[in-house]
Amino acid sequence: MRKPLLNKKLATLAVLAFLPILLLAQLRGNTYANARQTKSAKFYYVYDGVPGFVDKDSNGEVKGLLVDIMKKFEEYVQNSKGISVSVEFVQVPNKDFQIFMSEVKNGSGGVFGLSNVSIREDRKKDYQFSPPYINNVSVLISNAKTPTLTSLSDLNARFAGKKAYSVSSSTYYERLDGLKQMYYPSMEIVSLPSVNEVMSKVSTDNEAFGVVDLNYYLQALKDKTPIKRHAVGDKGEDKFGVIMPLKNDWEPVIREFFDNGFIGGSDYRLIITNNLGKGALRLIEGTN
What we know:
The chain has helices at 3-24, 32-38, 65-81, 97-106, 155-158, 171-183, 195-204, 214-222, 251-262, 266-276, 278-286, and strands at 40-47, 55-56, 62-63, 84-91, 111-114, 127-129, 134-143, 163-167, 189-192, 208-213, 227-240, 243-245. By secondary structure, the chain is α/β, with parallel strands linked by helices. The protein folds into two domains: 29-133 and 241-286, Periplasmic binding protein-like II (D-Maltodextrin-Binding Protein, domain 2), CATH 3.40.190.10; 136-237, D-Maltodextrin-Binding Protein, domain 2. Helix 6 links the parallel strand 8 and strand 9 (189-192). Helix 10 (266-276) packs across helix 11 (278-286).
């Protein structure tokens, strides 16, 4: 007699579990076409929370490299187009990357996705991309107790029995799968919802390892997290872009801003250094 009630409770819980996604759906920013007439625009900045790139500080203020870049873009829109911009930040629940991607995809007009999103051809059917704002360096990490790997050819022997952790449908997962095919055929790759959970797992489990972006490793160093970077696994061919819904006519404007000397200029270099450090700037420029 209790089964119908139990099923009803389970159904209610399922709805509640998806409620944060439903609450964030269908963001509508002003189009560029409309803003040219009204001389004002509302932007929505959707973000998941990435150390150094875009995240809340201890005072609850959203800061980071991408925040500073978009402030410069807002100035460009004001100065070159005569359009004043107001901004609202929207953080997705649990810093979940898949929810983040979905929210941007379902938006329209002045909606911009701020995260470390790799520019990939398969994603261009669902999103528009700005030009690359950074050449990323992905790093191979493990628990600090793991002996340093000096050659990827030793991955199978030195990491035997360890599990790899990654975020599904990410370039991290693809990178690990590539290492598996080349060096460690029996590697087990376990998917987690976010990079933060990957970092937590690796820092607490001596049998765990993974691939993350440089900024996560730099933040771990700053926080004295027991994580080791295996420099032999550094890879710098990935490029990150700001993502936008397909129904967004601001792409030519942000492209114009990036291409008019911002990337690589003094303001850009200062933003990188202020948010990631001089060491990060050297590593990033070394991948160009």
